[in-house]
């Protein structure tokens, strides 16, 4: 995308360490999920390049026993300068999946260049995806660019969340990174645009906790819900009834132009508060679409 590419050129310096394109610098993960003869969703195809991979699919959802839970993992422990990751996720017709990460996405400090992650997600007719990664943690002096493209069938449902920490809070790093640029584009199966959204945070150029920006909060999150219009109407009514602002967390939402999706912004004081709210919203969507309950995913 031209706008993002121009952004990236600001930090395109040569790297003295392991060069771009060397083993471990170009991570790749591609998975295709379909429904097998027993009705369970499984990984039909998988392709990966170090350091990205996925664990074997697991089935522990008592409310949706045919839904597969997939954990994306990285053996590097974080994203380094010069890293370029490409992730492709496809759900074929009627597939049901909950996809998450093994842990937070840590963006290490950089003295040159940047780190780039490109994600493509495609959902076919009747597919349902809860894509809820752990938070992004940009370390001091890091530069991270992410582009996500969603192609979601008009008769499919997708929930995606994006949580950004201000840094390694326990080490006193609060908004010490250079830039975190996140761009998302959603289309339907006919490539009709459903939404475009981006977040560009440059802490060293902004007073992020001014009124009208982060309102003294430290944790930011966005959620994108793409669903059928009738389900969106139910989701909005339930959000208005059950989700309220408080001193600890603030939330706002808007429907997309064709009322076939919801964009949600969240500001919180702690990652735990924000993640809990993300799960509460996921529970609302699942009830509206699948008419089943949802429990928070526990990770150890």
Could you walk me through the main structural features you see in this protein, from its secondary elements to its overall organization?
It is a single chain. The chain is mainly beta and 300 residues long. The chain has a domain at 2-210. The protein has helices spanning 2-8, 229-242, 271-290; strands at residues 26-35, 41-49, 52-54, 68-74, 84-91, 96-101, 105-107, 115-123, 128-131, 136-138, 143-152, 157-164, 179-187, 193-201, 219-226, 249-255, 261-268. The strands form 3 sheets. It has an 8-stranded mixed β-sheet. A 7-stranded mixed β-sheet has the order 2-1-5-8-11-13-14, with no helix packed on it. The protein has a two-stranded parallel ribbon with strand order 7-10. A hairpin with a 5-residue loop joins strand 16 and strand 17 (261-268). The radius of gyration is 19 Å and the shape is globular. The mean pLDDT is 91.
Task: Give short descriptive properties of this protein.
300 residues, eight-stranded mixed beta sheet, seven-stranded mixed beta sheet, 17 strands, 40% strand, globular
Describe the SSE topology.
Elements: H1 2-8, E1 26-35, E2 41-49, E3 52-54, E4 68-74, E5 84-91, E6 96-101, E7 105-107, E8 115-123, E9 128-131, E10 136-138, E11 143-152, E12 157-164, E13 179-187, E14 193-201, E15 219-226, H2 229-242, E16 249-255, E17 261-268, H3 271-290
What's the helical proportion of residues? 10-25%
Query: How much β-strand is present in the residues?
Result: 35-45%
Beta strand count: 17
Topology order in helix (H) and strand (E) letters: HEEEEEEEEEEEEEEEHEEH
Please count the helical segments: 3
Shape: globular
Largest sheet, described in full?
8 strands, mixed
From the helix content, strand content and strand pairing, which structural class follows? mainly beta
In spatial order, strands of the major sheet run 3-4-6-9-12-15-17-16
Mean pLDDT: 91
In whole angstroms, the N-to-C terminal distance is: 37 Å
pLDDT < 50 runs, ≥5 residues: none
Radius of gyration: 19 Å
């Amino acid at each position: 995308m031209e706008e993002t590419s121009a952004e990236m050129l600001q930090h395109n310096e040569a790297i003295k360490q392991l060069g771009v394109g060397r083993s471990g610098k170009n991570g790749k993960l591609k998975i295709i999920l379909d429904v097998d003869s027993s009705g369970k969703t499984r990984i039909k195809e998988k392709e990966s390049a170090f350091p990205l991979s996925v664990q074997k699919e697991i089935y522990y959802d008592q409310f949706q026993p045919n839904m597969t839970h997939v954990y994306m993992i990285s053996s590097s422990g974080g994203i380094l300068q010069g890293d370029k990751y490409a992730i492709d996720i496809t759900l074929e017709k009627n597939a049901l999946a909950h996809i998450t990460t093994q842990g937070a996405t840590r963006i290490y400090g950089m003295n040159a260049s940047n780190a780039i992650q490109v994600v493509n997600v495609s959902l076919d007719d009747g597919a349902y995806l809860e894509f809820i990664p752990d938070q992004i943690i940009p370390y001091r002096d890091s530069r991270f660019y992410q582009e996500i493209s969603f192609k979601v069938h008009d008769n499919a449902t997708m929930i995606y969340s994006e949580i950004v920490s201000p840094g390694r809070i326990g080490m006193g790093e609060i908004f010490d990174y250079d830039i975190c640029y996140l761009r998302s584009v959603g289309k339907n199966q006919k490539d009709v645009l459903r939404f475009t959204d981006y977040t560009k945070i440059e802490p060293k150029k902004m007073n992020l906790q001014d009124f009208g920006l982060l309102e003294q909060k430290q944790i930011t999150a966005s959620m994108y819900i793409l669903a059928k219009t009738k389900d969106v109407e139910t989701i909005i009514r339930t959000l208005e009834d059950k989700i309220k602002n408080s001193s600890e967390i603030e939330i706002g939402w808007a429907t997309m132009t064709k009322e076939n999706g919801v964009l949600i912004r969240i500001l919180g004081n702690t990652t735990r508060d924000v993640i809990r709210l993300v799960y509460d919203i996921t529970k609302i969507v699942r009830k509206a679409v699948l008419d089943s309950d949802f429990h928070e995913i526990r990770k150890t």
